[in-house]
Amino acid sequence: MTPSLPRRPRWRSLALLALCLAPLLWPLQHLAERYYRSELVSQNRQTLDLFVANLLGTLHRYETLPQILGDLPALRSTLQSPTDPQVVDHANRLLKDICDQTGAEVMYLLDPSGNTLAASNWQAKDSFVGRNFAFRPYYSDAIAGRVGRFFGMGTTSGKRGYFFAAAVHEGARVVGALVVKVDLDHTETLWGKTPEQLVLTDQHGVVILTSRPEWRFRATRPLTDEEHQAIASIQPYPTQAPQPLSLDDQAWLMQTHPIAETGWNASILAPRALIDRPVRTVVAIGGATLLVVMLLLGLMMQRRRNYLDRIAFEAKARRELEMRVIERTSDLEALNSRLKQEVLEREQAQQELVRVQDEVVQAGKLSVLGTMSASISHELNQPLAAIRSYAENAEVLLDHQRTEDARGNLKLIGELTGRMASIIAHLRAFARRDRHALESVALQPALDDALALLAKRRRAMAVELFRDLPDAPLWVQAGETRLRQVLSNLLANALDALTEKANPRCLWISAEQTADGVALLIRDNGPGFTRESLARAREPFFTTKTRTQGLGLGLAICDTLMRALGGELVLANHPQGGAQLTLRLRSAPPGVNLQPPEDPSA
Ligand code: ADP
């Protein structure tokens, strides 16, 4: 199974969520706007307060000046003798001095009908001397005994100024008025170039001071007819019909500070952009934060989903594995029971095979016996003929009283019967039907037994034995007695062969586990097999030994027994001389250590 591909994050649902959360930006904008607006408002209020304080400070400096100056004798004498040039000149100079010292723009002295008698600018081209200012309201106020206050633009100087006027008294009588004009143009230039605009409007709502020259002398509200008439008569502005000034409320944030004593309004106008810009930044940052949060959320969701997918995948894989294990287990159980059945069948077949093998071996033996019968009768007839002739001969010898010779004949007869008994004993052993089935036999103890039987003879012949056998028992499939019979035969043959040789006489016995069983090697350094004996040694009654010694049945019996055991007897000569016989036996599972030997007499 292939793991499911990691799905793309659900950007659509995230976008939807972002859309739902986007309205959160509106309160953010609102809050930011409120914050920046309050910041701006408090900052502008300070500026405005400062401006108003500064303006009032400037005006207050000059407010009481006209009254004080009215008491000066030089000026009073001018009012008394307005035609005395010396007196007038003195007054002019005095006014100029004071004007220079106080920083006022102009100071001038009016007679009761509003004519200027002396002025600080008496030397200037546009001197006020000789001019009548009775039309100005400050004149009428002063003559009426009040402090005259007036904003206006100089009709000759063209400069804006604030006029303070006070009456000059001679006792209770008003003899003239003293006027001080304060320059306001200068105040305007002090404001500097900030984005915020300052606007000072008079009682008519007309802009008299402003940091924006194009707003100057424009009416911030509609003027009434009376106001129009008043403006025409007192001429405070360069124009008699001020143009309207319409300020866009959306573009400007306005704060106003009324100045009660002059009836003016000081306003500061801050462009809304000053708030909009930081608010936009805040909203952008908020939006970006929202976006980042969304992205992080998206990534987290994706990771979580991948994690869940993985867990699900692993659980599925585990389930599949469990299923496979269950399937396998049931397969194995089925196989196991089949194998058990097969093993049972095999065991039965094996038993049957052993039985059949026994039958076959027996049949083989009988057939060999059949073929051997001619040789047997020949072998037995020869000693029988000899016995008969010795017996007949003994009769004759006894007739002639030659008892000693007859005794010798009888002894020979006895020997011959012994030989015949030996032949018969061998044949009996050969023809015997084994009652025992094949079993696990340890090779080493069987070999030790066979060697023990021949030990006396071996020692007498001074045969040196070289054993090379593993310590661990080599278990072979055999019958205990039959194996010992084979081993004894082969070892006896080796000793027989060694009698034909002078010392040193050696016998090598070695065994090894091979792929298909156990190989036991018995080698001697005797004369070895002749070409003929190698070819015929397994034939019954083939022997190269003298008749008294050999029956020629040993190897024939060994070969038959070995085949019956499922093994093999290999005859060969060693390259270095001497015979080498190899017994190939089948391996068997470890059995009970040593079986009680089969009854050899059976
Ligand atoms: P027997 O020993 O009675 O002769 P066997 O069947 O045992 O009968 O042996 C047959 C013949 O094989 C022997 O006569 C001999 O010639 C030969 N033979 C057997 N074993 C050896 C041996 N180790 N070395 C040389 N020849 C042998």
Automatic annotation (TrEMBL):
Keyword tags: ATP-binding, Cell inner membrane, Cell membrane, Coiled coil, Kinase, Membrane, Nucleotide-binding, Phosphoprotein, Transferase, Transmembrane, Transmembrane helix, Two-component regulatory system
Swiss-Prot/TrEMBL catalytic activity: ATP + protein L-histidine = ADP + protein N-phospho-L-histidine
SMART domains: HATPase_c, HisKA
UniProt enzyme class: transferase
Bilayer-crossing regions: 282-301
CDD domains (UniProt xref): HisKA
Known EC number: 2.7.13.3
Primary residence: membrane
Coiled coil stretches, renumbered: 332-366
Domain Histidine kinase residue range list: 375-589
UniProt GO MF annotations: ATP binding; phosphorelay sensor kinase activity
Entry membrane topology: Multi-pass membrane protein
Gene Ontology cellular component terms for the protein in this record: plasma membrane
Compartments, record wording: Cell inner membrane
Protein name: C4-dicarboxylate transport sensor protein DctB
